[in-house]
Design goal:
Blueprint lengths: L15 H14 L3 H9 L9 E5 L5 H8 L4 E6 L5 H11 L5 E5 L12 E7 L8 H10 L1 E10 L3 H16 L11 H10 L2 E9 L2 E8 L3
Parallel strand pairs: 1-2, 1-4, 2-3, 4-5
Antiparallel strand pairs: 5-7, 6-7
Helix pairs in contact: 1-4, 2-3, 5-7
The protein binds S-adenosylmethionine.
S-adenosylmethionine binds next to strand 2.
């Protein structure tokens, strides 16, 4: 159930149709670039037995692949219920249903939606949320060991794209908008919560960053 303080209308953008297309793409060609890099970073037993919280999980494909790489279980949270059916089908096909829990809602507004996990992932999520500081503060509070996130690079053409998508989103009566947050502000929010940058790389128009807990 959504609360009064959660952004509305994400289900008009991240619909069941989008989810079906994402699931078809995943069946055809596997993970997209940023999640694929995350799985590569955790290969060779680096995630054995660890729990994962995937925030803004979409169809949950990253979680599935991290389970295959050795993670113990996954909690997937997403603001849109549009992904639920496609995610459940993929889970059943993979025979991993007992190892994933799903919740619908805004983790920033409802931190209790998920328990802390060893690894917290936010792939292309802060760019879909206006109050990145609040979302990352809550996500960092859930990260026992690592937090991995990808976010758009701060370029003029991505800022232009962001403005166009936000105008279009108003027509669709949704609070969703594509936002290019300054990298400095994103990393500062995480460092304030005891995480520090241990890996960063460019992935096309996005940056992938891994932060590691230095204090509790
Ligand atoms: C662009 S999609 C990315 C989905 C997936 N992570 C991927 O890489 O394919 C962003 C997702 O983040 C979700 N989202 C944005 N802010 C969120 C929040 N505060 N709590 C939970 N989900 C959120 C949206 O509903 C959307 O499904």
């Amino acid at each position: 159930m959504s609360s009064c303080c959660e952004p509305q209308g994400y289900d008009r953008v991240f619909t069941a149709g989008v989810a079906r297309r994402d699931a078809a793409r995943y069946r055809r060609s596997g993970l997209t670039r940023d999640p694929r890099r995350v799985v590569e970073l955790y290969r060779s037993g680096a995630i054995d037995g660890e729990s994962v919280l995937d925030v803004g999980a979409g169809i949950g494909d990253l979680g599935l692949e991290l389970l295959r790489a050795g993670a113990s279980h996954v909690t997937a949270v997403d603001l849109s219920p549009g992904y639920d059916d496609a995610a459940a089908t993929l889970l059943a096909e993979a025979g991993l249903a007992g190892r994933v829990q799903r919740a619908v809602g805004d983790l920033a507004a409802r931190p209790d939606l998920a328990a802390p996990a060893d690894v917290v992932a936010l792939m292309k999520v802060v760019c879909c949320y206006a109050d990145a500081d609040r979302l990352l503060t809550v996500a960092a509070g859930h990260a026992r060991r690592h937090l991995v996130l990808s976010y758009p690079r701060d370029t003029w053409w991505l800022r232009l794209f962001a403005r166009a998508t936000t105008v279009a989103a108003r027509w669709r009566r949704t609070d969703w908008g594509f936002v290019v947050h300054p990298e400095r502000a994103l990393l500062a929010a995480l460092e304030r919560e005891g995480l520090h940058l241990t890996h960063r790389e460019r992935t096309g128009a996005f940056t992938l960053a891994v932060l590691t807990r230095t204090r509790v």
